[in-house]
Design the sequence.
């Protein structure tokens, strides 16, 4: 099987909203998803990402807006007639059925005229796809969590849906197994070419899996983009903080500098005047005895924490005015708590973001 856009559906969300009385949980969500695209809904709990997924699936009725799948309006289409595959975090396998029976169930319900031989053939195909061919006669309680998740995925794709919805499917697994299944999910997506909407609150997971990431905040879309673009160029302080560690400096801009009260920091070129925030990622910060050079900026601060974290050292410090700064460096073994050192960054690595509440 090859990954072609013909295997996936286009999905369009237009001004989608969901309210419960006076509470709005999804507000004015609009998004175009291309056939065969892997899109992740990312955000904290209560941000609206899972509710939006449930609206697409048909499990929840929209209060306003429109959902179209390959141009078909899903407004009055019940969930079981939308032809969408769904995988939940809880797996939702039938405990009294074998693996084979669990996977065959959607075919038997959707295509009752299919012969036994045809159903068995399709079940074998997806068991091989998820590398569970030797487990067809086992029941769910005889499987590990990762194996159960593979069976749930197989059951969701056996009837060949053009859209697959995954609601935090790896959230209950340990880190090592979760990372292993992320690679498997990428492989399966390449082979099937199905359009995937994946919900998670795990930033690393979103970055690893996605063609594009949709960042949700307070029921609306905060920003959409490719993983690296979102990380390198967040539009808002919320996105900057949610997608990994960041140094955020707030103040008032005069167009060239950011006045933070106790100090002025240089900005990367002319920007608008007024209140704003500037961001520098910790891995872009240099720690040492020398101060800023040409095209650089920074300040001295006293080290409050130095931690070895595997590939890098995490170095945190506080300046005399209380401003904190975080760096990730290749070698921090010579640094000690209480040392005063310079934290320096290139102006080219400074990103101006709109100020707002942190997640």
Sequence:
């Amino acid at each position: 099987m090859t990954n072609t856009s013909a295997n996936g559906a286009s999905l369009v969300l237009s001004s989608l909203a969901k309210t419960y009385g006076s509470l709005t949980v999804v507000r004015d969500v609009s998004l175009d998803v291309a056939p065969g695209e892997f899109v992740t809904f990312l955000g904290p709990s209560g941000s609206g990402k899972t509710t939006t997924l449930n609206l697409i699936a048909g499990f929840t009725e929209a209060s306003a807006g429109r959902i179209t799948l390959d141009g078909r309006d899903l407004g009055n289409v019940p969930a079981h007639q939308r032809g969408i595959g769904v995988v939940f975090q809880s797996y939702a396998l039938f405990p009294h059925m074998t693996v084979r029976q669990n996977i065959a169930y959607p075919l038997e319900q959707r295509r009752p005229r299919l012969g036994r031989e045809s159903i068995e053939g399709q079940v074998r195909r997806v068991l091989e796809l998820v590398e569970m061919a030797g487990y067809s006669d086992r029941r769910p309680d005889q499987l590990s969590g990762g194996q159960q998740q593979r069976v749930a995925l197989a059951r969701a794709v056996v009837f060949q849906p053009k859209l697959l919805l995954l609601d935090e499917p790896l959230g209950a697994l340990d880190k090592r197994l979760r990372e292993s299944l992320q690679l498997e999910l990428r492989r399966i997506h390449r082979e099937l070419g199905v359009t995937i909407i994946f919900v998670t609150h795990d930033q690393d997971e979103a970055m690893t899996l996605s063609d594009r990431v949709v960042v949700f905040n307070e029921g609306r879309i905060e920003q959409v983009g490719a993983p690296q673009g979102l990380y390198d160029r967040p539009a808002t302080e919320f996105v900057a903080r949610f997608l990994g560690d960041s140094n955020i400096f707030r103040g008032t801009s005069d167009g060239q500098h950011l006045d933070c009260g106790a100090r002025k920091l240089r900005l990367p070129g002319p920007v608008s005047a007024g209140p704003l925030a500037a961001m520098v990622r910790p891995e872009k910060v240099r720690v040492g005895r020398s101060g800023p050079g040409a095209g650089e900026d920074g300040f001295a601060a006293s080290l409050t924490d130095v931690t070895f974290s595997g590939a890098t050292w995490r170095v945190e410090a506080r300046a005399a005015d209380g401003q904190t700064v975080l760096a990730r460096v290749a070698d921090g073994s010579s640094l000690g708590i209480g040392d005063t050192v310079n934290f320096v960054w290139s102006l080219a690595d400074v990103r101006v973001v709109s100020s707002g509440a942190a997640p």
Observations:
- The mean pLDDT is 91.
- Residues 3 and 193 are 4 Å apart (CA to CA).
